Automatic annotation (TrEMBL):
Organism: Marinomonas aquiplantarum
Alphabetical UniProt keywords: Lyase, Metal-binding, Zinc
GO molecular function: carbon-sulfur lyase activity; metal ion binding
PROSITE patterns linked to this entry: CENP_V_GFA
Record-given protein name: CENP-V/GFA domain-containing protein
One Pfam family from the record: GFA
Family, as annotated: Belongs to the Gfa family.
Taxonomic superkingdom: Bacteria
Residue ranges annotated for the CENP-V/GFA domain, each copy included: 5-121
Keyword Repeat: no
Length: 135
């Protein structure tokens, strides 16, 4: 079933549309994802055979590939937000879940690379929750 999604970066200069279906949704805790996100993990969706269209700001996208690995990130040069990567050689689009402006029908399916997670990543779900910045 083909789905339609929209997304953008934080500053709004880069926006996109994706037509396809997300087949996998992983929360990656590897050290590279922690470095690029500044958090405990990256939340990435994988859409094999999807069509990615940049609706604005393609000229603001920059790309980084980590040497000697398959790790890569596309991001807005203005605000630094991660944006999708069209991995044509692999036949899929990788979408940072946080870049989506549309809702998802899929839930995270796995936490991956837990062997290299940060030592502070244990029991994050036990921290108190607030609807806004606590005082």
């Amino acid at each position: 079933m083909s789905q339609h999604h929209t997304g953008s970066c934080l500053c709004g200069q880069v926006s996109y549309e994706l037509t396809g279906e997300f087949k996998k949704f992983f929360l990656c805790h590897c050290s590279r994802c922690r470095k690029t996100s500044g958090t405990s993990h990256c939340a990435n969706l994988f859409a094999p055979g999807a069509e990615l269209t940049w609706t604005s700001g393609a000229e603001h996208i920059r790309f980084y590939r980590h040497p000697d690995s398959n790790f890569a990130r596309a991001f807005c040069q203005t605000c630094g937000s991660n944006v999708p990567i069209d991995a044509k050689a692999r036949g899929l689009v990788v979408v940072p879940a946080g870049s989506l402006d549309s809702d998802l029908d899929i839930k995270a399916q796995a936490n991956i690379f837990m062997g290299s997670k940060g030592n502070w990543d244990d029991n994050l779900n036990q921290a108190p929750c607030f609807d806004a910045m606590p005082s």
